[in-house]
Amino acid sequence: MKELAKKFYSNFKDREFRFMLYAVWLISIAFFVSQFPKLSVAFEFEKFFADDNEDKVFFEYHVNKFGYDNDYLLLAIENGPSVFESKFLQKVQAWQSELDSIKGITETQSIFQLKHLIKSPYGITAVPLVHSEDAKRLKRDSARIMSHPLYSNFVSNDARALIFQINHEHFKTPNNELVFFETLKTSLAQSNIENYRMVGKLVAQQSFIDHIRSDFTIFLGLGIAVTIILLLLIYRSFNIMLLPLLMSVSSLVYLLGFMAMLRIELSILSVLIPPIILFVSTSDAIHLVNAYRQNEESDFIKRLKSSIKKVFSPTLLTSITTALGFFSLLILPTQPIQELGVFAGIGVLIAFGVNFLFGPLLIRRNYKGKSIRLPYKKWAVKLIRARKTVITVYAVLISISVYGFFQLKTDAYLLKDLPEDSQVRNDFQYLDSAFGGSKPWEMAIVPADEHTSVFNYAFLKEAIKIDHYLRDSFGIEKVLSPLDLVKYANQIDKGGANQFYKVPQKEAFEKQKGIRRQLLSRGVAEGLVDSSRQYARFAGFIPEWGSNDTQKRNHALKAFIHKEVDENILSARITGTTYLIDKSNENLSIELMKGLIVAVLMIAMVLAVYFKSFKMLLISLIPNFIPLLFTAGIMGFMGVPLKLTTAIIFVVAFGIAVDDTIHFLGAYKKQKAKSPIWRIIKTFKSAGLAILITSVLIIGGFVLFTLSSFATTFYLGLFLSLAMLFALLTDLILLPLLLRK
To answer: Cβ-count burial of 323 within 10 angstroms (0-12 exposed, 13-18 middle, 19+ buried)?
Structure first.
């Protein structure tokens, strides 16, 4: 390997060899750039579900019965002071009658679809619920609708908005989603319906995609701009700045082109990949440049070989350890996280290869010596003298951080990631207030005896207990179940008065079997009971309580069912996308911490082989745990919840932060001085400047993310930059003291 490297770099004196290498570089860059049009951005909630999770297995079984509960849009069309005005209702009804022509809609539920069913000598007769053309009848209609437990579900609590639930296909591609979404909005515009609010998965996903695409583009450009500015300020040389810049951009082009070839869609986590690769590649290049500038040999080839020899092993080691840190994410059974781990890891290795393959092409013979002189000796002496103070300060900060760490809570408010002035966020909040909720909530209920129908009276009596708990204790304002068909049948049988919308006594229940059969044939309970009549569900909408609060409510509900419901008669299980999202967030946050442990173990094994010293292994790990602890402590004190997009920070921070420690220890290992103090001083002189420059670039790049109004990007930028700052300070303050001891 060494002989091959020597021969390779010896060829740099040959102009034809350099020309050939330039050609390979430029042609490969052009090829990978040509793949960019294949890149796409996507965000699907379902992709964050664990693939081998038993809850997901049951969810898929449930989906086969009733379809995806998240394939819906809630549309609130407002009219003040009341929706019960003839002109308004006629306009909306005309628009609603055209909905069936929109490709992708599977069902629409509103007061226009509902019929008021009454019992007559000829059977059950359906009467329109709304007579929009008759003002007198409309007044009676409005009173009936607002007082009815079922009909009122489709009007806001203040009667200022009609609610439409539009169920749609489970679209397979983002393009089909977008076409459907735009077609629906066009139909509203053509019908002159302007004052409306629309919420649902498609709305939220499109908003997230827009923010991901915007942040990806903006911060990629800003990251490159900041890199250029900082390098120019530090080196004050366009030629020196060019090498790290071109190496980092080339590495990113190769990686993104490779991802495009594989048709990998950029997710909410993919926004992390460009800055990771930019900064890691820049770091590799800076170490190479600084090694060359510090070398005083007169012959260019000898100087080049000597410089590469000095940094090749530490840079290879940092690339391997960083890549292993990201590859550790493969243990998580979630596609977006696995993709982040795989491609960030591959990108780090690509950056190493690009820097040592093409980087030397840009090194100029006339690079000047160091232009920045730092007081290494004075700094080292001051550190040694202030050793007790430094250790005490770190001990206090660690104690405070541990306390803050235990304040961390696992929680997620999906919509809080959107800016406060976001129309999408405001619309969801409006639906939560006016309609009682905008997030789907599901519970499957089945008879314990597989031969029993869900319309068995004993089964329904147990279901009533759950229904009462959901309304009175759980907090669901509007929930539907097979009980509603039973209540409706009783109301029809008793003459239609609202007070009879309830489950009757058993004798009346048995007599109403024919009415229930007719209602079922009309599709009244479609979507609540399967065709076998042996599987049913509670379905409703809940507000954005946050995953922590929602999970607490779910646990309390499970405890209630276990205690109060006869599970020999009725078996219940919470399911649905909201349940899986909340549970996945909780599990993934914990799994990411496990992933961090795996990353540490993998990196420790590599470091143990390299340093061949258990003491050096410990010294290399301690300075990289402390920044993570400090960052976690700050998150705890700030009340920032631990969720997928904040938990990932620790894995990324550890993978990047360990680079500087390795470079410092690698330089320390090569020093010949016998005195530990002089070895530290020479280590500062050899690697200190490069570590400082690379850290400033990384921190400066991640700080840019705090300019985003998208909370996910903001917190990634804030805490990654803080972690990198703590890592730099620890490497320059605590690490030398650990080495001296």
So the answer is: buried
Residue 383 tokens read as 């550190």
Cα–Cα nearest to 211, from 544, 709, 707: 709
Q: Which of 416, 404, 415 is nearest to 719 (CA)?
A: 404
Residue type (1 letter), 141: D
User: Nearest to residue 444, comparing CAs of 541, 529, 380?
Assistant: 529
Tell me the pLDDT tens digit for each residue of 121-172. 767 777 888 888 887 888 888 888 888 888 888 998 889 999 999 999 988 7
Among candidates 513, 488, 506, 484, which has minimal Cα distance to 498?
488
Computed from CA positions of residues 660, 665, 668, 669, in that sequence, does the dihedral angle turn out positive or negative?
A: negative
Max Cα separation, the chain? 110
- State the Cα–Cα distance between residues 333 and 51, nearest whole angstrom: 6
Q: How many residues does the chain have?
A: 741
pTM surpassing 0.85? no
Q: Cα-flanking dihedrals φ and ψ of residue 590, to 5°?
A: -70, -40
Q: Which two tokens stand for residue 241?
A: 């700045």
Strand segments, DSSP code E, in 326-477 are: 439-447
Measured between alpha carbons, how far is residue 318 from residues 9, 155, 661 in Å?
22, 61, 9
- For the record, the structure tokens of 616 come out as 């050096």
Cβ burial, residue 422 (10 Å; 0-12/13-18/19+):
middle
Contact yes or no for 212/266 (Cβ under 8 A): yes
Bridge pairing between strands 105-109 and 161-168: antiparallel
Q: Could you read off the pLDDT of 541-566 as tens digits, one per residue?
A: 999 898 889 999 999 999 999 999 99
**CB count in 10 Å sphere of residue 146:** 14
Burial group, residue 521, by CB count within 10 angstroms (0-12, 13-18, 19+): exposed
Q: What is the mean pLDDT of residues 60-89?
A: 90
d(CA 348, CA 346): 5
Q: Give SS3 for 537.
A: strand
CA distance 143 to 148: 9
- Distance from C-alpha of 679 to C-alpha of 120, rounded to nearest angstrom: 100
572 DSSP β-pair partners: 445
- Distance, in Å, from the CA atom of 371 to the CA atom of 374, rounded to the nearest integer, reads 10
| Helices and strands of the chain, counted as H and E runs | 25, 12
Which residue in 571, 549, 554, 570 sits closest to 469, CA to CA?
554
Can you read off the two tokens belonging to residue 563?
């205690």
Q: How far is Cα 496 from Cα 511, in angstroms, rounded to an integer?
A: 16
Which pair of structure tokens corresponds to residue 324?
A: 């292993």
